[in-house]
Amino acid sequence: MAMQAAGTDRPATIHDIAAMCGVAASTVSRALSTPDRVNIRTRARIEAAAAQLSYTPNSQAKALSSGRTGAVGVLVPDITNPFYFDLIRGTQLQLKAAGYTQLLVDTEESDEVEASSMEQLRKSADGIIVTASRLSDEALLAAAAKIPIVTINRDVAGVPAVVIDTPSATSQALDHLISLGHTHVAYMAGPLTSQSSTRRWTALEAAAEERGVDVRRLGPFAPKTQSGAAAADAAVHSGVTACIAFNDLIAIGMLQRLRERGIRVPEDMSVVGCDDIFGADFCNPPLTTMASPIEQAGRVAVSMLLAQLNPLAGGGSRSRSLMPTHLTVRGSTGPAPAVS
Amino acid sequence: MAMQAAGTDRPATIHDIAAMCGVAASTVSRALSTPDRVNIRTRARIEAAAAQLSYTPNSQAKALSSGRTGAVGVLVPDITNPFYFDLIRGTQLQLKAAGYTQLLVDTEESDEVEASSMEQLRKSADGIIVTASRLSDEALLAAAAKIPIVTINRDVAGVPAVVIDTPSATSQALDHLISLGHTHVAYMAGPLTSQSSTRRWTALEAAAEERGVDVRRLGPFAPKTQSGAAAADAAVHSGVTACIAFNDLIAIGMLQRLRERGIRVPEDMSVVGCDDIFGADFCNPPLTTMASPIEQAGRVAVSMLLAQLNPLAGGGSRSRSLMPTHLTVRGSTGPAPAVS
DNA sequence: GAAACAATGACAACCGATTGCCAAATGTTG
DNA sequence: CAACATTTGGCAATCGGTTGTCATTGTTTC
Asked: Is pLDDT of B255 > 90?
């Protein structure tokens, strides 16, 4: 019984195709990547042979000889943070649509891991998307000089960025709280190295001054639900009646802790989160939070990066994209308690 | 001003090091990968040069010549499903510890995407971890013949697997419900192609027969919170007083829908989830669910795969690993309502 | 019908490593 | 001091493609 031509278990190479068609390997390569440069009949034969052998190009070899890897690195500080799920999905879908592979790296909230990952990716990826970078401006700029980079939620002059406009949403949140009668508000800050947290606080402080209400900054708190307990206690101790948390994880952790301590939300304390992550709508009470199109942010970042990689057509790529953010009011905010 | 030797912006190669040390490239290669085969002084010189040039091996080239890519593919049906967060983190950490890179792929709950991803990974990865595969047994076996595979939550003879033992937890859940007085229980099934769902139902059915209570299977439901609404309505319509959902997403969706409809949980209806995902502890009411060490499952899967890849030392690798599961009782289950 | 031109495809170098093979250098022993 | 065993390290082929160069073929034009 004759063995099928495709029966060899080793993946087919262009050489197999070349041998089968009686042409040179380079012709096969051209037929598949530069179809116009090859006789249409030859091309047809080659394509048929490729199909029959179920040929798939070896991406390693391709990368090695062409210099392009067809991969894009995506760096996130913490994979288990739900905020990044939608972001990752956005980048994944958009990259796949463009024929790129996503290399996902968890940098464990560490600038060192982040830097070494970048160095590593420099050779194995065509570009990098960095979310919430913990690196210094200089380090980021230096990295961007070596490999195309788009940042998300980190704005450094000279590096294309997608910024989720939470600062402007903080004033919405503040107005919401003020209209409910709150005059003493706390901001539960995120990591000191988080630019998002800093910007948000700056915006909040400015808005508060404008409106003549008292805001104070507490923290920093790690962006995890576990930090919510400390945040809740700090908020209670500070005497405020409402707080705006760096993100939903902290806010949700606060809700749990406040419940444990018998402090009612929103009757005794109002809580506002940020990001509208998975869970914000079904926690108890449902969380008032600042929402934004996160998946789209991922897609936009990919588009910007790809525009940088293939500067072929039309419109010059923008180097900065601001994602709108709005306040979603749910059950965790309510009227300020009457003064006792 | 003299330019630094390391100043060229192109990444250093072993040839640069070789030139700098006055040896052949192959010697550099050996010095770095087979230190014993090279004179200790030469090695020292080479290492110093490598450090000075901040040399990093090109993984593409390495893969091409050695046949080993140093990467492992991890296939998940849906990245945004929180269940996979911990799993992914487990694989990521364990892989990184072993010096491997993780290639994460979202197969979008599609067997076709799954199959094509596998074919793709066959060349760019040394092995694959497949979670909750939607492929047929034959397809999975065929794939496993081409590249080392470890499955998670999918048991096929001949393919090493990590199985989370939820079936045995279902009887715990059932006993819990029975002790609360429930006699009519529904199982809200997952996708028909999900082996986990099938196994869980089989186990539940057997346990129910043994204990003489009524269980019925409803569904299938997609494993998303949105499906919870339909599941809730189906459960209510069927007249049961308790239900066990395929996973926490469906269960949480049910909680939301039941609340909308004014059906109290657990007074009117008890709900049990599965997986103990992020959110199960802070939803309203907190969800009684079947918990298991998911992150560890990811780590174990990686260990099994790596044992397969490097069959060097000691103990023969096991081909099947069962992760224990236990019932975590929270607020979503309570006494059966009195018969009206 | 010859010259000019375009289309086509073969050859070979190259990307950055790994690795088998062999020669040179070193050290040991009788 | 010769003969032998053992390191040590260089040469060159190889992995699977891409791409520049060039010879050949076929077509068009005057």
From this structure: yes
